[in-house]
Structure formats: C-alpha cells, structure tokens
Predict the structure.
Amino acid sequence: MKILIADDDPQMLRALRITLTARGYDVTTASDGTAALDAAIRIHPDIVVIDLGMPGLTGIEVIEALRGWTQIPVLVVSGRSESWDKVEALDAGADDYVTKPFSADELLARIRALSRRTPAASNEPVVTFGDVTVDLAAHVVTRAGASVRLTPTEWRLLEVLLRNHDRLVTRETLLTEVWGPQYTTDTGYLRLYLSQLRKKLEPEPSVPRYLLTEAGMGYRFVSQ
Amino acid sequence: MKILIADDDPQMLRALRITLTARGYDVTTASDGTAALDAAIRIHPDIVVIDLGMPGLTGIEVIEALRGWTQIPVLVVSGRSESWDKVEALDAGADDYVTKPFSADELLARIRALSRRTPAASNEPVVTFGDVTVDLAAHVVTRAGASVRLTPTEWRLLEVLLRNHDRLVTRETLLTEVWGPQYTTDTGYLRLYLSQLRKKLEPEPSVPRYLLTEAGMGYRFVSQ
DNA sequence: CCGCGGCGTTAGGGAACCGTGAGGACCTGT
DNA sequence: ACAGGTCCTCACGGTTCCCTAACGCCGCGG
C-alpha cells in the first residue's frame, strides 16, 4: 500500500513517515506542491495525504491537478479549521479533511476508511483510437470488441504513452517509467516492446498511425 | 439523491432536514437505531448520516449491521470528539466522522465528497456465473443448487475479486485486502487460495473460465 | 556508391511466474 | 490428548515473460 505525504513542515513529515511506515505502509514524502505532483505521477500512490499550506503550488491546486488525472483518495491535513477552508478543499476533490492537531490513531483510521473505498471507486478515463479501446482503471484493452492480451511491460509502456497523449515522450522518460530509474539508455528493449504494441494495436503495424516514432527523440501517442 | 438521517435529538433532526431539503436532497429521518435500520432496508438511501449516541441500537451497531448488507456511504455525526470514538466508528465501516457542533456548509461538502465516491449501482448483492451463485450479503455460495463451503480466507479473496468484476486486481491489492496492509509480496499463498477457489467453483479448474490469471500482474474475475 | 547510425523485427535461452500436491504448525472444541 | 479444520511453507513441472543477439531496412552524408 503506497502512500504519498506532502507537507512543508519537516517535523510533521518525519512523524507521519514513522507512524505510517510502522503500520506497513510504503511511504513517499514531498515538501512542496510541485514535488508532490511529480511524485504522484511517478509512483502512483494508493492514497495521498496533503497539507494545504505549502509553498509553490498550494494544496488546492495540487488536488485539482491530481483530479484532472486520477481518482486516488486525497486526505487533507491542515492547520486551518474554518469551514470555508474545508468546503473549498472537499469541493476541489479532496475526500477527507483533518485539522491539526490530530491524533495518529484518527489519521490511521481515516486512511483505512478511504482505502476501503478505493477498489470500487476508480473512474479513470477510457481512451479510444481506431477500433481499440483502453480502460486504464480496469486494465482492459479491446480491439474490434475482442479483448487483447498485453504483457505487464507492454501495458506499462502503453500506459505511459496514453497518459501523455499528443505529447512527445522521450526515450529516457519511457525507460525510467517502465523499467525503473536506473534504466536511462536503451539497448533495444524499448524498440522491441513498441514493435509488439504496434503489432497488437495498430491497424497496419508497419505504417504506425497512433504510436509514432520521433527519430532521435522518443515516441508520441496521438489519438487520431 | 435519497439521504437517511438518524439522530435522537428532534431539534437536530429538524435542522438537518431543513438544510438538506433546501439543497434538493430527498430526506428520510429516524430517531433510533432500529428505525434507522428499518428505513435503510426500506428505502435504500444513497447516503446515511447517523448520530452515535442513540437509544436502542447504538450507532456503531447500526453501522455494522448496514455493512453486513450494503456499501452505502455512512457519515457519522457525534458529540464525542475522542480519537478512540472516531477510530471505532471508522473501523466499524463508517466513511467519515464529524463532531458536533459543525457547520452546515462543512456537512454538505462532506456529503458531496462522499457521494462523488459512490460507485455506480453495480453493487449487486448476488453474483452468478456458470452454475454458481454468490450472495455477498448473506455469505452464501451455491453450486448447482448445493451449498459450497468456503474457508474465511477463500471467502475474502472471492469477495474482493467479485466486487471488482471484469477489472484486473493486482497481486498487491489482493494481498493487502485479504491478508492486511503489511502483506505486499506473495510467497505462495495467493496462488494456493486461487487454486482452491477454482477447484470449488470452476467447471474445469485446470482451464479457468471465470477466475483468470494475468501473468505478472494479478487476477481478474469475469462473469461470462 | 557506400558506410553509418537509428529503427523495426525475429528468434531463442534463461529467468520469473504460475498451478498444485504434500505435509507441518496452529487453533478450537470435545 | 485428540480430531477436524484452517493456514501456510516447500518443492516441482509447466507456462509465460523478458532481454540479448542478430539481421534487414531506410535515410543521410561522405
């Protein structure tokens, strides 16, 4: 169970990390809004705990950015207890709001309550191109109605390209997102899996229409 | 949007009814735990707001009874602000906990946040596939009319897969849902219990038709 | 014309993963 | 103490997946 904590107070970060790690959660931390967003995109946490009063992007802006992209549960932790603040955060897409100071037990219980809800709730976009549809939440790929089997690596690669649709994705980005941060230079496997994706998804694999190559740079998925 | 409010304080009931009705909710009220359960069974509300300190059945008991039967969002309203009370209610199955006094705006925002999470009406209490029927609420599995005995672990595993029907459920999700958040990597028991479920439920266990494997990723239940 | 670099594709060995049987640890009620 | 049941570990064969190596294609510049 991966959990992302964003707070600009190092002491709070440390306390939360210790508490949550002790309970078996896999904790990642960020100390400003931009770092929080980056981390969310990179590690796909199962739940996000975020402080409102951060420098750079505010917590509200982070929540809105997240919601443009995913339905991960977001729990807000804030020093502000005015009802207006709560309304703003909840309506921006947060799922729960706890005011400081709070007890660790309560936070843990609220995290449990939120993660209980997750599996049934995801409502991610379905991407369509040609006669192919991809349901990112359900991990389902169909082509002309028939289901298409993808291996884990093929799926991760497709996922990264789809989440960055119409944008160029560099080889380096693809490698680190799909194979891990220690992989930065291609020795052939990127080309290999791209080829397999095309074989499974493109109407004419030898003349790609959706999964395009940008020579010397990387790849780009275009939906039409 | 139907909403059920349970509170033994007539004044609170009246205030909430007015506030919520004015926002367009279809409000039903109950003034003790038994009446709340009856009303929930009768009208199938989309969300339940419940006070903990009621005569007869306590709020906690009502939540537990509801959870044996449905996944409706439950928001607890209580005069008690001890973290222990919150933990108890949330772990009993409540989704949110607000302490009195609270502002109407905050309550409304929390109700909106909860109803946003409500999955579509896909929460079928009874699932059938092949000659097998599974009653999620009653914990009953039958095959060709005869009852099938499942161990607690087998049941939890089946439940998670059924509640996510047609979607891929990752190994990690299954492990944390069935065995707890500290279990994230399989050392063999997941495969073992899947095998046992297939033996009990699949027409031909060696060629699974409903409980499918996605190598390297997880499992998926498909109803046909 | 020809070498060269980047890309696409195929094939095969090795590693990781999966299904399943056997058996031991533990818990519970008799 | 014993029996029945549940949970988990271990091990083995079969399957799937991943990556390396090698080759052909194409465009470009020498």
